[in-house]
Design goal:
The protein is an alpha+beta fold. Among the domains are: about 110 residues, Tumour Suppressor Smad4 (Sandwich), CATH 2.60.200.20; about 90 residues, no CATH class. The chain is about 20% helix and about 15% strand. The strands form six sheets. A seven-stranded mixed beta sheet has the order 2-1-12-11-10-7-8, with no helix packed on it. Strand 11 and strand 12 form a beta hairpin.
Length: about 600
């Protein structure tokens, strides 16, 4: 069976062009796909819209292949038949397929496009809205003029005529530039959300990047990563391409690579500022010693490949005024002034464990959490207090009170200890036998008792407590001050790793002894801070593949750019604007020697 496919097109001048082709086959497909026998490049036509098959009786069966129907002699159907002898018309989009029988017996399908102005003179078009509106060209000019007036002329005029005002960090003053929101490239971040109606609060000059002085006017307490001249010396030189971009940016008022806006981009939506990528830190710190030859910082670019060993802060000598820093490779010895064997207290089969099991306060062998509790920020630990963590086993009870309670020795100051021991010595003593009080020089109120009774007994008790083998030396190191027995002052830093951020809450599923070897530590001088190697058991660089154990770790996971965000600074002190000096220790309670106590008692 032969199909004669006749396509009728028109030139721009209106001349008709007819193209014929013959297909010797019994089936045809019609659609927008190029492989169809009848290709109709019309978006209203599906890729394979319909199929035309020759039936046994000479009829043509037409069937839709997709979800859309087609027009057949004025009706929309999904299937139908056409008798070539009488003819028929198929409507697909703007194409019309006329089916007829030729004189030679072949079936012809003539394809023509419906004219664009067909039906333009229809009487119904007079009722359409388009007939009452201006032309599309005129409407386009009207809208363009309105956009230029409302979104350009009015904002520019109001900006030039406004009265300059002081910066408003709280976002309470309304903006003076009218319709400036039309120029916004996106919503502000969560912290700057209150400034959405006051663009000139940050954009002081028109068509100029936000300047550092504008940012600092609100963020005056935000410290620099280091002194600005030192940062400028420490950054690597830009590549030729970056240098060209910075020159263009400088011509438009953008400050250099150390400017605030080079890192802090706005109009990204109501989100928090994302931490810097590892490359941001590694660009400077990878070869920092080649530019800053006087730096004490080691090169670092990837935690799993190159990172300096940790240098914790600790007291290296007894009674030292300031702590020092040392790398963990040399196994530093801490001189805190305490005697505390961790292994004895953590031995699940030892005497300390058996005592803890018998006490309702614990009811089980001792664990790290029984003495060490996290601070609210989940970074460090609260100070261990003897009364809360130790007195359950190391009792300070010294006797009973008159009302039936218990009297305890105060802990923390030798002066308090001396006063408590003096009260014990001056307390009423039961008589060995019934007798009368003796009057005279050896009576209860005589100078003899005042000079030789209580003070001497208190002094003897205090000396015994502070001497080796005394109750105080179970935990403290004895010493002598001005020829008298005393205790070594306790020196412990508030935080050991002062240049990084470590969240203990994120590691709560791990055992403390996985990182801190407290269960095998026999000396209080052991500095139980995990080293770089132990952290690398789980934490590798940003390019590491994440598994159940391995955690890809970028620089921002432990370090913050602006000190003291996530980093340590002494309490009550301003943030450091340069590499922080060694922090001073917290002042402890005033030390009181035995000699001074006795001198005050005599006076």
């Amino acid at each position: 069976m032969a199909f004669l496919i006749r396509t009728i097109d028109f030139t721009a001048a209106g001349r008709e062009i007819i193209r014929d082709r013959v297909l010797e086959q019994a089936s045809l497909t019609v659609g927008r796909a190029a492989e169809c026998e009848i290709h109709l490049p019309d978006l209203a036509v599906e890729q394979r819209h319909l199929r035309i098959d020759l039936a046994a009786n000479g009829m043509l069966a037409v069937e839709a292949l997709g979800t859309l129907g087609f027009g057949l002699d004025g009706r929309v159907v999904t299937e139908g038949t056409i008798d070539p002898r009488t003819g028929g018309e198929i409507a697909l989009g703007a194409a019309r397929l006329a089916v007829a029988r030729e004189t030679d017996g072949s079936t012809s399908i003539t394809i023509r496009q419906v004219a664009a102005d067909e039906g333009k003179g229809d009487a119904l078009r007079g009722f359409a809205l388009a007939s009452a509106l201006p032309s599309k060209r005129a409407m386009s000019w009207v809208f363009a003029a309105a956009i230029l007036l409302l979104l350009l002329a009015i904002p520019v005029a109001s900006h030039l005529l406004r009265t300059p005002v002081k910066n408003d960090p709280k976002g309470e003053a309304p903006g003076q530039v009218v319709l400036d929101a039309a120029w916004s490239s996106g919503e502000l971040s969560l912290k700057h959300h209150s400034l959405e109606n006051n663009c000139e609060s940050c954009h002081v000059a028109a068509f100029e990047s936000v300047q550092d002085e504008t940012c600092i006017s609100c963020h005056e307490d935000t410290a620099n990563h280091a002194a600005m001249p030192r940062q400028a010396k420490g950054i690597p030189p830009p590549t030729p391409g970056d240098a060209i971009q910075w020159k263009i940016g400088a011509a438009l008022g953008k400050e250099g690579p150390l400017g605030c806006v080079s890192c802090h981009s706005e109009h990204e939506g109501p989100v928090r500022q994302k931490p810097a990528a590892q490359a941001f830190c590694a660009d400077c710190h990878n070869t920092l010693d080649t530019r800053l030859t006087d730096t004490a910082l080691g090169n670092a670019h990837d935690f799993g490949k190159e990172h300096p060993q940790f240098r914790p802060v600790f007291y290296a000598s007894f009674g030292a005024a300031k702590p020092v820093r040392a790398v963990l490779d040399v196994k530093p010895v801490e001189r805190s002034g305490l005697k505390f064997p961790h292994d004895v207290h953590m031995d699940a089969r030892g005497g300390a464990a058996r005592m803890a099991v018998s006490l309702t306060q614990y009811g089980a062998p001792l664990e790290c959490k029984d003495c060490h509790s996290l601070t609210p920020d989940k970074i460090g630990f609260k100070e261990v207090k003897m009364e809360d963590s130790c007195e359950g086993c190391h009792s300070l009870v010294s006797g009973r009170t008159a009302i039936g309670g218990f009297r305890k020795l105060r802990h923390g100051d030798v002066k308090d200890l001396a006063e408590d021991l003096a009260q014990i010595s001056s307390g009423p003593r039961p008589a060995l036998a019934p007798r009368r009080d003796r009057p005279g020089q050896i009576g209860s109120g005589s100078p003899y008792r005042a000079d030789f009774g209580r003070p001497v007994r208190a002094y003897i008790g205090l000396s015994n407590a502070l001497s080796p083998g005394g109750v105080c030396t179970e935990c403290h190191l004895p010493t002598r001050s001005k020829g008298q027995a005393d205790l070594m002052p306790v020196n412990l830093p508030d935080r050991f790793l002062t240049s990084g951020f470590f969240n203990h809450e994120a590691h709560k599923k791990e055992e403390c002894t996985d990182c801190h070897a407290a269960d095998t530590s026999k000396l209080a001088s052991d500095l139980l801070i995990p080293d770089l190697k132990s952290c690398r058991d789980c934490h590798l660089g940003a390019t590491a593949v994440k598994t159940r154990k391995i955690v890809p770790s970028e620089c921002a996971m432990c370090h913050a750019y602006h000190v003291p965000a996530g980093q340590w600074s002494p309490k009550g002190k301003a943030p450091h604007y340069s590499p922080a000096p060694t922090p001073a220790p917290k002042p402890g309670p005033a030390k009181t020697t035995v000699a001074a106590v006795i001198e005050r008692a005599k006076s």
